[in-house]
Amino acid sequence: MIYSCLHTHSTFCDGKDDIETMCRSAYEKHFESIGFSSHAPIAKKTGIVTGWHLADERLNEYIDAVLDARERWRGRLSVYLGLEMDYIAGRCGPADADLRELPLDYLIGAVHYVASPRGDLMTVDGFDDDFEREFRAFFDNDGKALYRAYYTAYQEMICGGGFDILAHFDLVKKNNRRFGFFLPGDADYQECVAKTVKTAARQTRNFVVEVNTGGMIRGRTGDPYPSSAILRLLKAQNIPLTISADAHAADHLGGCYEDALRIMAGAGYTETMLIDGSKEGKPHWRPQRINPARGAGSAEGMFS
Ligand SMILES: [Zn+2]
Ligand SMILES: [Zn+2]
To answer: Ligand 2 center to residue 13 CA distance, Å?
Structure first.
C-alpha cells in the first residue's frame, strides 16, 4: 500500500497540528510521502486579511520549517513543499510571478472566493452562518448565480496556469447539503461543469486534479470533490488524478481514501498519481494502479 497526501495544512495557517505532528502521523500510517500546502499569503497582494491564510511575514519561516522536516524525516518519509494558492479574479492566482521565485515542489490552485455581480467577494466554503449571511446579501440566495460565478473563476484560474494540482473541483457544493441552493443534475449546472472540464483539457501544463476527501471527512459532503459525474468527464479527457484529504489535522490523513478510490474506479480510473520528487520546481508524477476488486474490505488492498 502506498499512500500520500499533498494537500495538508498545519498550524502555519488553519491546521490544528504542527508540521512535525503531521509528519509523524503520516509516517505511522505508512505514508510514502506528505506534502504541505499552506494557504498562500494573500494579504499584501489583495488587502484581504483572514485567519486562515499564512501571514506574509511568516512565509520564509514556513518554507524553512518544511525543508527542516524534510531533513529530519529523510529515509523514512518524503516531505514536499507546496502552497495552496487562491485565485481571485484580478487580484491573485497561481500564475503570480512571485510564486515562481519560491523553492516549491508544487503549487495547488484553488478557488475559495467568488465575486457577486456587484463585485462583493465571499467564500463558497464559509461556515454555516457566514455563508448564509453572505449568500443572501451578495447573491440574493440565487444558487445559479453562485455556482456560475464559481465555475467562471475556476475556468479563469485554469486558463491562467501556474498550478500543478487543481484543488477541490466542485467546492461550490460544500454548503449545498445544508442549504440546497442547486441541483447537481440540473442541465445548467452540468453545462458549467462540462465547460470547466473542457477548459482543463485544453491546458497544456503537466497537472493533475485532486480527488479531495476533505468534505467527506468533515461530514459536509457525501462524496469527494469532484463528484463521480465530474470524474467521468475528466476520465473522458484523460486528465490524471491524485488523492488527498485536505488534511487540517493529523487524524484527517488518509481519511475516506477507500471510499474515494472506489468512486474513482467507478468513474473508470485505473490509476492515481503519486509525487515522486521534483525537478526544477516541477513535480514528477508516478502512476499507481488502483485495484478496487481487492479493496472491498480494506484500504490495504486498494493498490496493487
Ligand atoms: Zn482549499
Ligand atoms: Zn486546503
So the answer is: 10
Question: For the domain that residue 226 is a member of, what is the CATH number?
Answer: 3.20.20.140
**Residue 204: pLDDT band with limits 50, 70, 90:** confident
Pick from 32, 29, 20, 19: which is nearest to 78 by CA?
32
Expressed in angstroms and rounded, the spacing between residue 157 Cα and the centre of ligand 1 is: 14
pLDDT digits (tens, 9 = 90+) for 70-84: 999 999 999 999 999
Q: CB within 5 A of ion ligand 2: which residues?
A: 84, 246
Cα dihedral value 179, 181, 184, 186, nearest 10: 150
39 CA distance to ligand 1 middle (Å): 8
Q: Which domain holds residue 210?
A: 3-83+94-108+161-301
Total domains in the chain come to 1
Residues 6+ positions from 20 with CB-CB distance below 8 Å = 69, 72
How far is residue 159 from each of residues 66, 154, 166, 198, 200, measured CA to CA in Å? 30, 9, 12, 11, 8
pTM score of the predicted model: 0.95
Gap from CA of 293 to ligand 1 centroid (Å): 31
Distance in Å, CA 35 to ligand 1 centroid = 14
- For residue 120, being part of any structural domain is answered with no
